[in-house]
Specification:
CATH superfamily of the largest domain: Winged helix-like DNA-binding domain superfamily/Winged helix DNA-binding domain
CATH topology of the largest domain: Arc Repressor Mutant, subunit A
Structural class: mainly alpha
Shape: elongated
Strand order of the largest sheet: 1-2
Distance between the termini: 40 Å
Number of strands: 2
Mean pLDDT: 88
CATH class of the largest domain: Mainly Alpha
CATH architecture of the largest domain: Orthogonal Bundle
Strand content: under 5%
Number of helices: 7
Low-confidence stretches: none
Helix content: 55-70%
């Protein structure tokens, strides 16, 4: 488990869904959360009860779902991780947007804070080195990378 808030992946995903719905529609309803996540409304209700018990949301049956201040802070951290990882996969590794988004969703919950900081530092370094990002893209052209692709030649100093 990553060091965000001690929640399961599933509950972090619910927080993320609620956050996005509130940003997009100004409100989050059980049916909208269910549709966004592709699950049954009964599954949503169970998750909302757990999030409410953790004091991350305000929830009552047949009412809108609201994030508490703590819940919003946690949701924003999950969203920020997801956005960073998606951008990293697309801009640095050259992964297509849909795959990058799916994979970011899968791993955003398991990376530690330390690993995320190290990845951010590496991205900062890569962006400051002229030609390095372009070189990485030459090594990994979209759709042409295979599991048995050879490692590149070492950099010449």
């Amino acid at each position: 488990m990553a060091e965000i808030g001690g929640l399961s992946e599933s509950l972090e995903d619910y927080l993320e869904a609620i956050y996005h719905l509130v940003q997009e529609k100004k409100v989050a309803r059980v049916r909208d959360i269910a549709a966004r996540k592709g699950v049954k409304m009964s599954s949503v209700v169970g998750a909302l009860r757990r999030l409410s018990a953790e004091e991350l949301i305000h929830y009552r049956a047949r009412e809108y779902v609201e994030l508490t201040e703590t819940g919003e802070d946690l949701a924003m951290k999950v969203v920020a991780r997801h956005e960073f990882l998606t951008k990293f996969f697309v801009e640095v590794l050259g992964v297509d947007e849909e795959t990058a988004d799916d994979e970011a969703c899968s791993i955003e919950h398991v990376l530690t804070k330390d690993t995320m900081v190290r990845m951010r530092r590496m991205v900062g370094y890569v962006k400051q080195c002229p030609g390095l990002l372009e070189h990485l893209h030459e090594l990994n052209p979209p759709g042409e990378v295979t599991e048995d692709a050879p490692y590149p030649e070492p950099c010449k100093s």
